[in-house]
Amino acid sequence: MSRTTIPDPWQAGLEAGWQVTDGALLADDLQLDADVVIVGSGAGGGMAAETLAAHGWRVLLVEEGALKTSRDFRLLESKAYPELYQEAASRKTADKGITILQGRTVGGSTTVNWTSSFRTPPDTLAWWRDRHGLGTLTEAALHPWFERAEKRLGVSDWQVAPNENNQVLGRGCRALGIPYGHIRRNVRGCWNLGYCGMGCATNAKQSMLVTTIPGALAHGAHLLTRVRVRQLQFDAAATRVTALHGEALDADGQRPTGRRVTIRAREVVLAAGAIGTPAILLRSAAPDPSGLTGRRTFLHPVALSGARFATAIEPYNGAPQTLYSDHFMHTQPIDGPPGYKLEVPPVHPLILGSVLSGFGAVHAGYMEAMPQLQVMLALVRDGFHPASGGGTVKLDRAGLPVLDYPIGDEIWQALKRSWLTMADVQFAAGAQEVLTVHESAQPVRSMADARRQIETLPLQSGLARVVSAHVMGGAAMGKDATRGVVDAEGRHWQLANLTIIDGSVFPTSIGANPQLSVYAFSLRAAEALAVRMAGV
Amino acid sequence: MPNRRQFLQAGLFGGVLLAGAAWWAAPRPEPQPAAVSPGLVWLGAEDAVLIGAIAPVMLGLPGVPRELVIEGVDRAVLALPASMRQEVRQLFDLLGNGWGRRWLAGIDQPWSRVDAADIDRFLRRWQLSRLALLRSGYQGLHALIMAAWYGNPVSWKSIGYAQPAQVMAVLP
Predict the structure, then answer these.
(1) What pLDDT, on the 0 to 100 scale, is given for residue A461?
(2) Is the domain of A448 the same as that of A380?
(3) Would you say residue B167 lies in a domain?
(4) What is the extent of the structural domain holding A368?
(5) pLDDT tens digit string along A260-297?
(6) Residue A83: in which H helix or E strand, if any?
(7) A244 and A368 share a domain?
(8) For residues A290 and A281, what is the distance between their CA atoms, to the nearest angstrom?
(9) Contacts with B132 from chain A: Cβ below 8 Å
(10) How far is B150 from chain A (nearest CA, A)?
(11) Does residue A439 belong to any structural domain of this protein?
């Protein structure tokens, strides 16, 4: 008798004739044409692909990563990080001060994210209207796009009790009188496992991999994987994209195979993420009169705090992010000392071992205590304070992007305040010991000791552990060609047939986990593109 | 001309300083290791000795099976993009030659004979160094060794971790 196993919806789709080409297997150079080519298959590209294919356009979706589906997801970090993440989950800013977790696979970061679904906060939209001249971006105007994205992706309240890792956040906030809330999630039939970051083995997470990309393929779209778009070619006046030039990558996803891919399309959508999209524009020497291409890239820099409890936490089991607090987003003006959002991350052995500061006996002690370990994170809202200009995407000798993001004093001070807050919340929830994730920190057993220690911790890259899972900006919307790379609907100000549909278009960070913002803005931009295409 | 401080701050492992140091240093032959796992793809014999010496101290696990950590580092490096592999190469070359080991790591003995206390001092110095270059060298060693060991299911029992059995049973 055969074993009952979890079905993989891609298997049936491929058997039904979905058009998928693996660039690694190309024996010859490839020339393709389409009505629309979309570069990148993450939150932006996935939404754009389904929308445009449903309108009847011939869509070509190009992805640098490989096609990995639920049958490949083994709940194994050592397999997931190299296969599903940019630079094997070791992507770093230029000074190595911040480690960036970003997906590189069909579905992009949506395949590996932790399902937290927040609409763009109203104060962020107000700031974009007031300070960036984007007057059309009202809550009312965006409401239908959020609703549509939420409906498409099953975003809803999470009915199951939060896991203990999250309960600590709730308990600590209650004890301190700090408001907190429940996080909505884009899941259907979730098993409450906690392995979202390694690809959802049960297909419950409504990532692009199981929703819009299959939707687009069912409408006849063509998916081309393991092809990196190197360059856009323009007409003589540099007003239109005339072709895209790409290179096929080997099965390991790193070395070009030597096979070239040339694509011609009436409309071009860049959806390669807030590092990848500016990199393509920079490699192509795209017109950039505003000077903003690859500028003002934001990360929501994240600080971390570990805590040991006497009781079981098992931070690896259960839905990863279900409670949050925005209290410290609102204690100061939006452009004052940067605020931060409190959440908890899922904790698994490899990532804990790497992220936990220190070495030797103390480190080993914390690893051994993993079942009683709670980890909290604070995500800093960058891009609003006058000094918070974010980072700059640059190209290395191979033409690959490197994000230069020096951590400014205003961000350091926010990270430091957040260490204090997290220790406070953890002790209030009953922690026996708190370890600020910083190379100079030692475990402390009281808030008074935490305060004394945090006061002395050097605010320096490579000592404080700072990570990011949210890359935003670098090709921002602006009210005119001097103030942005694209207009409020993602259309490039100089290149008439180029639309940017991903997190690059945000003029600041979002101030919340950005996936739902990317979905809603992408639907809106893709529908606007469809209208333009139909009108010509 | 950048001053020294700017230069060091800008210095990554792809930087001129390390490449220069590694080239300028007269390489001293290290004693050959007694045995190297035959399965290694990227790591050389000298790299394996280096990692085998550092890993138990970094992990705080004196009895850790070194060959598993070495194999894990080999796999982890292979998964990195070329530019990062190049940086790891420079780091290992620097630590592997006598000049770098003595003057940058402060280790007088060859890696095959150095004792744990000396390695502990070296790691502590790099971990908290005022030079971004040495801090990032420490971070590189930390990340690779931690990933190599805790990414291996062999390590999980000792930290009380297990994958959820109800799912593992129904994976295709």
Answers:
(1) 95
(2) yes
(3) no
(4) 164-194+301-468
(5) 999 999 999 999 999 999 999 999 999 999 999 999 99
(6) helix A77-84
(7) no
(8) 13
(9) 95-96, 461-462
(10) 5
(11) yes
Structure token digits, residue A204: 């419950």
The shortest CB-CB distance from B143 to any of A8, A73, A90 is to: A90
> What integer pLDDT is reported at residue A337 of this predicted model?
98
A461 with B142: Cβ contact below 8 A: no
List, for chain B, all residue ranges whose pLDDT scores fall below the cut of 70. Answer: 1-37
A1-47 residue pLDDT tens: 457 999 999 999 999 999 999 999 999 999 999 999 999 999 999 99
**B9 neighbourhood in chain A, CB within 8 Å:** 95
Beta-ladder partners of A99? A92, A467
Last residue of a domain, one of A468, A485, A506: A468
Interface of B with A in 56-115 (CB under 8 A): 57-61, 72, 75-76, 78-84
**Given the structure tokens 């109800």, which residue do they identify?**
B166
- Model confidence pLDDT, tens digit, residues A342-365: 999 999 999 999 999 999 999 999
What pTM was estimated for this model as a whole?
0.95
Nearest to B149 among A7, A353, A439 (CB): A353
Q: What is the pLDDT of residue A254?
A: 87
Q: Find the closest chain B residue to A80 by CA distance.
A: B151
Number of domains in chain A: 2
* Contact yes or no for B160 and A371 at CB 8 A: yes
Q: Give the one of B12, B143, B170 whose C-beta lies nearest to A5's C-beta.
A: B170
Q: Do B60 and A365 touch (CB under 8 A)?
A: yes
Q: Which domain holds residue B73?
A: 4-19+30-155
Structure tokens at A511: 């101030």
Last residue of a domain, one of A427, A446, A468: A468
CA distances from A392 to A244, A293, A387, A396, B126 (A): 24, 9, 14, 13, 28
Instruction: Extract the tokens encoding A265.
Output: 């399309």
Contact A68, A24 (CB under 8 A): no
CA distance B30 to chain A (A): 26
A411 SS3 class: helix
ipTM: 0.96
CA A517 vs. chain centroid, Å, equals 11
Q: Which chain B residue is nearest to residue A81, measuring alpha carbons?
A: B79
For A426-445, how does the pLDDT look when each residue is reduced to its tens digit (9 = 90+)? 999 999 999 999 999 999 99
Position A122, amino acid: P
